[in-house]
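User: Fold this one for me? It's Tetratricopeptide (TPR) repeat protein.
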Amino acid sequence: MNHAWALLESGDIAGLIRHLRFNAEAMEPGEVARLMEGAAALSGFEDMREAAAALAVRQEPQQLYDFGFACVERGVAFLAIPALRRALEMMPDEPVLLMELVSALERENRHAEAVAALEPRVDALDPWPARYLLAYNALFSGDLDRAAREAARLPAPDGDWAPARDRLARMLARARAAGPLGSRDLRGWHFALGGGVLATISPYGFDEGMTGRYAYTSDSFALCRRTLDRLRLVLDAAGRRPASVGLLPDRSSRIVGLAAARLLGLPAEPFAPDRPGALVVAYDLNETDADGLRERAEGQVLFEHASCWTDPPVVSADVAGFLHQVAVAPWGEQLRVTPGGETQTAPPDERPEEELAAEIVAAEPLPDDGDDGAPPDPGERLAGFVRAVAGHWLTGPRDMVRSPGPVPSSRFA
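Assistant: Here's what I get for Tetratricopeptide (TPR) repeat protein.
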């Protein structure tokens, strides 16, 4: 506890939040509130400061709820969970408390706990949202059968909930098409939840917690070429032939888009949301303007080379090259180790976009052997997957998927 106060007194708010992530559930809500009151005051978060100050004085359901709500709104939902659970112990039949707890658990990707919280109370609650959330969280926890059963029990929704019903139906249909889905089937679950095809599986640390995702990776021209070759394989397996390549406005996306146009023998032109048959190419959707991409034009395919799984983009790509936490573009600023063992920063590669695209095209797209822990992922396996799910690919809007779903991966601060 003294360590937490020392972090606050030194102004290390990020360090305090990391400390509380691992320790808050064993602490009294009042003590957490006092710490967060100080942290919020230093951060200028008046709503959080007021809620924390009230909870520090009085630990009753209203104060616990207000603090939990503020934590969810301020992006520290893990701090809301113990406070809201304490409030539910005091008022077990209060649906507002339950729904806010489920919201906090979802934000933390603790979907099985959300199911456990909803299950004993769902019959007494309005099915929209309670039973819908039960089905949704069952699916994201990997329990496809339970999700399907609960979805089948949902009555027809009113207009406000119709999009959620349709999204759940699409996810369940995709899961059935991709199945049977195991607990480490990253490609299958990626498709089921977001509708996109994952082109490559990370060969590093598969059995040590990464299960096919990258944490930090320094990208390369060879990996860019490899994901574009896998994109071509996906398009061929699905029987899709784009008419052009749509270039998004950021430099990295234009580089990869120009390389894709060369490899596929297609004309390249600036992205237009309503242009049919376009292959829209992004390097990383978090680094570009994604306006106009949620609803696809006829025959449009969205490819994202490097997709961040810890900070998901606002739209889900139809094909993702690989999943990462942090990726440094081959032409970006690089950290390098000198022959003497020192670390130095190499400046960005400022060559023209066409020249960098040509280097991608010329690169040898050899697969990375990694550390030998990942299962083999030959092209025919990817093609077979695409053929199996092709009828459910490129359907519906490109929804944002906030959660990594039932296939966990280790993440790093």
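One thing worth pointing out: The two ends are 22 Å apart (CA to CA).
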